[in-house]
Design brief:
globular; alpha+beta; single chain; 190 residues
């Protein structure tokens, strides 16, 4: 009987510890379960917010890979976080600045398509060069509408945590995001 009481006591302590834990690391299942007003604690960065209050979670699907675009706010400022669990190591990229095609001196979709066709290219922003890495077509789904998009990834050869993601919604609607990689394991659901 003492053994059973001890087991119940230890089980109760473990359950209490789990309940009092302030946060859990986010994983793909956690991202799928995010709802509006969920709060993510982000690792500290010089350029980004410390918390993200979720507004929406959308997906980009390329073949069998799915990555997530989590939009939200931090103290009234709009924020975007991209999460990708499809590779051998999960990735998280926090948008630190929205950039326009004029900022990047991109004249339009044709210039991006030429970079993709050549398999190489370079864009510059704020004195930093970004080298073409990859591009693909994806299906964007925000829970209501599906859109076919193209995306282009560029990286900074001097700082591998510094990136540039361009999403082409159509011939004239193109968004640019200056991103900073952050540790996925350090993102906590509060």
């Amino acid at each position: 009987m003492i053994g059973i009481r001890r087991a119940i006591f230890v089980t109760g302590l473990l359950a209490l510890a789990a309940l009092s834990s302030p946060a859990w690391s986010i994983d793909e299942a956690g991202v799928k379960a995010l709802a509006a007003n969920s709060v993510l604690q982000l690792p500290p960065t010089a350029d980004g917010p410390s918390k993200l209050t979720v507004k929406t979670v959308a997906t980009f699907t390329t073949g069998s890979n799915v990555w997530y675009m989590v939009t939200g706010s931090d103290e009234g400022s709009d924020e975007v976080l991209f999460l990708d669990f499809s590779g051998s190591a999960a990735q998280a990229d926090l948008v630190v600045k929205d950039v326009t095609m004029a900022d990047l001196k991109v004249k339009g979709a044709r210039q991006l398509e030429n970079i993709e066709a050549q398999g190489k290219g370079r864009l510059s922003f704020a004195g930093r060069d970004y080298i073409y890495e990859d591009s693909d077509e994806a299906v964007y789904f925000d829970g209501k509408d599906r859109d076919e998009v193209s995306y282009y990834e560029f990286s900074n050869p001097k700082d591998e945590t510094d990136g540039l993601l361009i999403v082409q919604w159509d011939e004239t609607d193109i968004d640019g995001f200056l991103t900073k990689s952050i540790d996925v394991k350090a993102i906590k659901l509060l």
